[in-house]
Amino acid sequence: MKRTTIKDLAEMLHISTSTVSRALKDHPDISNSVKLKVREAAETFNYVPNDFAINFRKKSSKVIGLIVPSISMFFIPSIIKGISSVLNKKGYHFFILSSEDSYEIERENIQTCINSRVDGILISLTKETKDFKHFEKMNEMEVPVVIFDKIIPQDLYDSVIFDNEKNAELSAKKLIQHGCKKILAIFGDESLGITQTRKESFLNTLQSIPEIQCKTIYCESPESVKEKLDIILEYDQFDGFFAMSDETLAGLHSSLVKKKLDTTHIKVVAISEGTLPKYLDESYEYQINDGCEMGMIAASALISRIQKKEEEDVILVPKTFYI
């Protein structure tokens, strides 16, 4: 069925389109009888305002593009929840694009956002992203951008990141306090800055106790963790385990269950969004990386950028928000 337009209502009622428009907006210059007729016709023929056309005239789409490296059950849902809670209150809609951890797809996703006339972009970078050349078109069109979670060194855009050094340090201290002497530390993708930052801080903290031995491995997925631990746990024993993310924790837990290791005699510490450990084993300790909070801060920062973009003589200095 064809969508009813203001022009259609005007032709039905034999009045001008401007009169219909003002009647729908309850303009005081339009009589109550005309307003009533217009509203009755709009309801009868299921007239729905064209938000895109309205926002186009206002030079605003009220739409935000959200670009993530991948969509998984870990962490991303809580990020989306936080973003949604802020944007909905501000009258914005958003769509989600996955880059599949590919620089080329990320570049295509940015172009999709530009073509969709988004008011701003929230983006977590892929592991292949090393520069911001593909952001040039956005800069030319003055589209505000906020980068969150997975970033690279830059001073062009607002960024929202976890305090990775602190979280890794506190995780190591938990294992030290528990008296662990032989630890297996499981880190994520070796190519990511977040991985290297957490590893360096974790190992530096353990150095304060010379008698502690620590073995480290890199795993890009829960399946990779299980594959490596199937081999390692056959010939080696540990009294402490560290998982740098929910993904690595999921793989670790599966391996511990498979090997039937008693978690009352070992200590497991992770950096986690906070939900997964509660369902795996109540003895697991964790440093919370609150994805919902990160999403809320990132969305709020972007809305602030969008609002200030129209202000004259305002110099916007990029900020880094640490959680």
Automatic annotation (TrEMBL):
InterPro entries listed in its UniProt record: HTH_LacI, Lambda_DNA-bd_dom_sf, Peripla_BP/Lac1_sug-bd_dom, Peripla_BP_I
Keyword Transcription among record annotations: yes
Naturally occurring in which organism (per UniProt): Chryseobacterium piperi
Name of the molecule in the record: HTH lacI-type domain-containing protein
Signal peptide as annotated in the record: none
SUPFAM superfamilies linked to this entry: lambda repressor-like DNA-binding domains, Periplasmic binding protein-like I
PANTHER family with a match to the protein in the record: HTH-TYPE TRANSCRIPTIONAL REGULATOR GALS (PTHR30146:SF109), LACI-RELATED TRANSCRIPTIONAL REPRESSOR (PTHR30146)
Domain annotation HTH lacI-type: ranges: 4-58
GO molecular function: DNA-binding transcription factor activity; transcription cis-regulatory region binding
Transmembrane segments: 63-80
Key word Transcription present: yes
Keyword tags: DNA-binding, Membrane, Transcription, Transcription regulation, Transmembrane, Transmembrane helix
